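Q: What does the assembly look like in three dimensions?
Context provided by user:
Components: two
Sequences:
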Amino acid sequence: AQTVTQSQPEMSVQEAETVTLSCTYDTSENNYYLFWYKQPPSRQMILVIRQEAYKQQNATENRFSVNFQKAAKSFSLKISDSQLGDTAMYFCAFMKQEETSGSRLTFGEGTQLTVNP
Amino acid sequence: DTGVSQDPRHKITKRGQNVTFRCDPISEHNRLYWYRQTLGQGPEFLTYFQNEAQLEKSRLLSDRFSAERPKGSFSTLEIQRTEQGDSAMYLCASSLIFGVNGYTFGSGTRLTVV
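A: Here is the predicted structure of the complete assembly.
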C-alpha cells in the first residue's frame, strides 16, 4: 500500500515571500503520478500541479513549482510571491498507474498554509 | 458546465437515521469518485464508478454504505443507521476515463450525526 506523509501540519509565510511545503511518499511502484491540491476554507479542493514520475523535469505552473526527487521519494511544493489567496490547506496526493489503481488518489494529512499581510 | 455539484451542503441527522447524498459530475466525465474527509485529515477513498459500473469499494465502505450511479450520470451515496463516527465531509469528484490529469472535486457534503 502507498503512504503519503506531510510532516508540516502548519506553516506561515509573509505576503510576496517564498514558501516550500514538504511531502514524502512510500511506494514500490515505478510509474505513478503525484499531485498537489489546495483546499481553501469551506471551499472545494482544486488541483494545483501534477507530476508524472517518468518525467525528470520538475513541473511548473505559474508561481507554483515542484521539486521531485524520485530516488528519495520526495515531492515538495514551492510557492513563489505568496498571495493572501494562497491561504489554504494543501494536500499532497499519489496515484498509481491507471491499470492497477483505477485512478485512486492517496492523500497526505495536509499542511495548513497561512499567508500573512 | 458548472463543475461537480453536491447536495446537500450540510446535513445534521440523529444517530440511527438514514441519509442520502447526491453528486452531479461534469457531464463528459466517465469516472466518479467518493471520498470521506474527517477534520484535519486528508480525504480517504470510498468507492468509484466508471459510467454506471461500481468498480472498486474501499474497506471503509461498510455494509451500511451503498452507492449508485444509475445511467452513468449522477450518483447517490446512502448511509443507513448512521453512527457518530460517520460524521465527516463526503467529497465527490469526477474525471475523464483516466484520472491521471487530476480530478474535479465538488464542494462536499458535511454530515453531522448527533
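Follow-up: Chain B has no helices and eleven strands.
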